[in-house]
Design a protein that fits this description.
The chain is an alpha+beta fold. Helices cover 24% and strands 27% of the residues. The two termini are 31 Å apart.
């Protein structure tokens, strides 16, 4: 199993940044997959003042390979769930 770290930005009211040039906040928010991606977002934002009282939340998740599924079976199952 491989651990990976990703990042979210949390507002003091408990909501998370949705990203974008003029960020809004929501219950789910956006996940940035790396420090580099987060820094890129911050350089893109019109004004980082929107984040003045926010905090960066590092999240750790584990990547584990599951049993393989036949491709045509996978397609059939995803079509059924539409």
């Amino acid at each position: 199993m491989k651990e990976k770290i990703c990042y979210k930005i949390r507002h003091p009211n408990g909501s998370y940044s949705d990203g974008g040039r003029v960020p809004s906040f929501s219950k789910k928010g956006k996940v940035w997959p790396s420090v580099g991606a987060l820094k890129c977002h911050l350089s893109y934002v019109v004004s980082t003042a929107v984040y003045d009282k926010c905090e960066v939340i590092p999240l750790v998740y584990t990547i584990r390979e599951l049993s393989p599924v036949d491709f045509s079976q996978f397609i059939a199952n995803t079509e059924d769930s539409k």
